[in-house]
Design brief:
Shape: elongated
Distance between the termini: 87 Å
CATH class of the largest domain: Mainly Beta
Keywords: Membrane, Signal, Transmembrane, Transmembrane helix
CATH topology of the largest domain: Immunoglobulin-like
Structural class: alpha+beta
Membrane topology: Multi-pass membrane protein
CATH architecture of the largest domain: Sandwich
Order of helices and strands: HEEEEEEEEEEEEHHEEEEEHHHHHHHH
Helix content: 25-40%
Number of helices: 11
Subcellular location: Membrane
InterPro entries: TM7S3/TM198-like_dom, TM7SF3
Radius of gyration: 28 Å
Strand content: 15-25%
CATH superfamily of the largest domain: Immunoglobulins
Pfam family, one: TM7S3_TM198
Number of strands: 17
Number of domains: 2
Length: 504
């Protein structure tokens, strides 16, 4: 019995040792979190139990630290002291603080808390930089913190905008910081450059574990450059703000790397993420995108489109109604949205009515006058609109020249008109292609009302450009992952089946 008791005690002791050495999860003690440099750590914050984060054994060649903490959608607060004031703390889902080290200092601490009723799962990391590295947010004049390394994200239906504070040159421990705006030469912070990066999370994955895992790929300079896509490079003369098209329900992580080309050094800001939607909204939240009225509208539209995809060429008048519905509905929705303040559901009902009138008008024009060229011109313009939208869905659409509305719409219209002109001598092929491609794409739009797919943004970006003048400044990058590839393959299959049906 004595030997058995010793074995049990030995096993229990070994388990405690393993649990205590797992630095990435749990608390080392209530109210105190031990961190090590450059290592991520998972932990939960409770409203009733604020925590203190502590970092020991800081090397003497480290000049400043960036401590950052991330959660999915519940806010957490990080502060230099137990007194949480606007100029010494930050609150949000992605927040960080810069700690300028004093001479001989080898330890520092931060205070963490949450006001959310539910416990908040977080991941945090302290990162070190030397005196040659630029200081993110070191010349902040817009936000509350004296030095603000955070990337701030704002979004609406049209665009997602990130903002950040300008950086400053690095300096040694105990030295005075370089002045921010005394001079604008190569010896000042005006030589710094800012590289903006974008990283897409897996499609339709809203889990907390996936987000916190992928955020770790966007915290340090080497990982950001290896995993994310660089969108634009800004100079110190540019506005520290960049806009992107909003991707409802699609997780995106943004970060900025400030680079000193003279010293060939760089530092990363605190990454920020968004899903361009709310997890707590009662209707149209991240888990259930879109309104009920939108789902009904596009589901009925897709059923008609699916019929047109396979049988539209044989049922000529039904196809004309479908084309007329698209033609009139699209322009009518833009018109009433820009000129009125009607609620969305009312606008959608009026669009359905106007689209039906447009479809009936096109059918009546064919039935009464029998003008084939006019009808086929409408058919060709709808196909041309989609082809032009696809062209600007590529990196071509992000060229600076197309931020001018005049250049964009003239180029867009020319591409759209080119399609019916090219196919005017072979109307049968034009009609078959329109039925197959437009009919199948209507199914894509309906599927997007239930879960995210990037292909819907082919036409959605054009609609946003027509509705909102500020959208011209937005980068329209989207992920092309599993759902997009599957739907693209399905569209090709449906279109080919439609062509075979017509030929048969």
């Amino acid at each position: 019995m004595g030997l058995l008791r010793l074995l049990v005690l030995a096993v229990l002791a070994s388990e405690r040792g393993v649990a205590g050495g797992a630095e990435t999860v749990g608390n080392s003690s209530r109210g105190l979190l031990e961190f090590s440099m450059g290592n991520f750590r998972y932990f939960k914050l409770n409203r009733l139990f604020p925590e203190e984060a502590i970092l020991r054994h800081i090397s003497s060649n480290v000049t400043f630290l960036i401590f950052q903490i991330h959660s999915q959608y519940q806010n957490t607060t990080i502060s230099f002291s137990k007194t949480f004031l606007p100029n010494n703390s930050g609150t949000g889902t992605d927040r960080g603080l810069v700690f300028i080290l004093r001479p001989e200092q080898s330890m520092c601490s931060w205070h963490l808390e949450t006001l959310d009723a539910e416990p908040v799962q977080n991941v945090a990391i302290p990162l070190s930089y030397s005196e040659r590295d630029p200081i993110p947010g070191g010349c902040n004049l817009e936000f509350d913190l004296d030095i603000d390394p955070n990337v701030y994200v704002e979004y609406n239906f049209f665009e997602t905008t990130i903002k950040f504070a300008p950086a400053n040159l690095g300096y040694a421990r105990g030295a005075d910081p370089p002045p921010c705006d005394v001079e604008t030469g190569q010896d000042s912070r005006w030589r710094l450059q800012y590289e903006v990066y974008q990283y897409f999370l897996p499609e339709n994955d809203l889990t907390e574990e996936v987000l916190l895992k992928h955020l770790q790929r966007m915290a340090e300079v080497p990982q950001v450059k290896a995993n994310a896509v660089q969108v634009v490079t800004l100079t110190a003369n540019d506005k520290t703000s960049v806009s992107f098209s909003s991707l409802w329900g699609q997780g995106v992580i943004y970060n900025v790397i400030v680079r000193d080309p003279f010293l060939n050094t760089s530092a990363a800001y605190v990454p920020a993420h968004t899903y361009a939607c709310s997890f707590k909204a009662m209707e149209g939240n991240c888990a259930s995108p879109g309104r009920v009225s939108t789902k009904v509208f596009f589901t009925l539209f897709a059923l008609l489109g699916l019929f047109i995809c396979f049988f539209g060429h044989r049922f000529w008048k039904t196809e004309l109604f479908f084309i007329g519905f698209i033609f009139m509905g699209f322009f009518f929705y833009i018109l009433i949205t820009r000129l009125t303040t009607l609620k969305y559901d009312v606008r959608l009902i009026l669009t359905a009515v106007a689209g039906s009138i447009g479809g009936i008008f096109l059918v009546a024009a064919w039935w009464r006058f029998g003008i084939l060229l006019f009808c086929m011109l409408c058919v060709g313009l709808v196909l041309g609109f989609l082809f032009s939208s696809v062209a600007f869905f590529t990196p071509l659409g992000n060229l600076m020249i197309f931020r001018d509305d005049g250049v964009f719409w003239v180029t867009f219209s020319c591409i759209a008109i080119l399609i019916p002109v090219v196919f005017m001598s072979c109307l049968r092929i034009l009609n078959i292609l329109t039925c197959g491609i437009i009919g199948s794409y209507s199914v894509v739009l309906a599927i997007d009302r239930y879960f995210y797919t990037s292909l819907s943004h082919i036409t959605l970006n054009v609609l946003r450009r027509a509705l909102n003048t500020d959208f011209r400044r937005a980068f329209t990058n989207v992920p092309f992952q599993t759902n997009g590839k599957t739907l693209d393959a399905k569209n090709q299959s449906d279109s080919q089946m439609g062509v075979l049906t017509y030929q048969g």
